[in-house]
Amino acid sequence: MMTTNTQAIRVRFAPSPTGHLHIGGLRTAIFNWLFARHNNGTFLVRIEDTDRERFKQEYVDSIIASLQWSGLVSDEPIVVQSERLPEHTALVEQLLAQKKVYRCYCSEQEVLARHAQKYGPQDAFIKYDGHCRDREPKDISLSSVIRFALPRDIQHISFDDMIRGTVTFDMNQFDDFIIVRSDGRPVYNFVVVADDAFMNITHVVRGEDHIPNTPKQIFLFQACGYVVPQFAHLPLILGPSGDKLSKRDGAVSAVEYKAKGYLPEALINYLVRLGWSHGDQEKFTQDELIHLFSLDQVGKKGAIFDTDKLNWMNGVYIREKTAQELFNYITNYLAPDFIDAVPAWNEQQVLQLLQLYKDRVLLMSELMEALIALYTAPHTYLQADVDKWIGSSTSAHLHEFVQIIEKLPTYTVDSITDAVKTWCKAQGISLAHIAQPLRIALVGKTASPGIFDLVSIIGKQETISRIQIFLRHIDN
User: Fold this and answer.
1) Alpha helices in 76-213 (DSSP H)
2) DSSP state letters, 198-253
3) For residue 436, which of 372, 473, 387 has the smallest C-alpha distance?
4) How many Cβ atoms from other residues are within 10 Å of residue 126's Cβ?
5) Collapsing DSSP states into helix, strand and coil, what is residue 305?
6) Interacting residues of 5 by C-beta distance below 8 A, sequence separation 6+
7) pLDDT digits over 194-236, tens only?
């Protein structure tokens, strides 16, 4: 039965569960999602699990979790390709009855031998010669594949790509390709067509590595009586050298980016800008992306992946979040037991420290590490900072600081700051001569957020304890 698409735009993201969702796949999903949202269309997800040798359920779960983490949720129930095998089989039988496909009983060795005899053993492109196409079918119990009968009355096939314009292939680049293996399993190009038609897909937005598959799929759409969707092939993401993105350059899974501490909105913003642009604007809200996104603005050339720029973008998004939002993200996605790792602090202290440190990091993992490092009193001190800031009067200054904070009627950052500034003025010393040794005592080095903020947040007793430990160190 013929399936037709509707006027409303319907797109799909169709990952194969042979690994975790990689960064290129995530960008394809984002472009599909934005295209659907911009056009008030429908975004769908299909799990293409025909490669049973490399299939793992953990990859299915990981892909779905990565899409959910990114906010790319299917608008309808997820379609699992293998569950539609009866429908695929029925369609094959229909095409056999219509003589649009045929059984081929040739072994691989026979195909190779005939090709070598005709073109010579050095010819690299092995093209099936149609040996079984016009012969009477043999006993169907014998081992066979099923091949598509290519039309013989055309010289080339073209399609209009929404990104690349007209793409043309000469027919001598194709042969009667296999649609069902000898073990009865239908192949990728066939099931993609069957499922796209079943899901009423109107636009197929995918990577440019699928361009060679498109003519075969168009032939199958036409043979089945289906409406051919519009195609748009995205440029590849490239490494700094201009070659295909490698693992070293950043071609890792969304799971790894999540674990490293990238926020999904920052990663999405960055990936959208790899191949798509709107003037010189770099940062977009989700509403802006939905409003502005168009395939017309997607370039034809591959985009260079720049980790430094991604890190910068992630830092921008971290700084824009409230401490509560950062805390919620950490406990929801990165470390549900994070508060247990700092048992002496209450949630309010953690929130204050997140607010204090968020301007100093590019990754959420760095933010967590900074808080853990602060929680753990330093066991060593950066010698270069000690040499620079610890002098003969440092011990006396730190002892005086302890007495100052012990006498404070209220223990706040403002009261601590005012009291220390007053003391420094009376002593005729710069604030740095007490602030820098304090930093070394509290965190082991002079690089830290505002020292009096730290003193107020970690508390009076912890501050005094760390100063006393440091005093013993410098006294020795």
Assistant:
1) 85-97, 108-119, 188-198
2) HTT--EEEEEGGGGGGHHHHHHHHHHHTPPPPEEEEEPPEE-TTSSBP-TTTT--B
3) 387
4) 13
5) coil
6) 200, 201, 202, 227, 229
7) 999 999 999 999 999 999 999 999 999 999 999 999 999 999 9
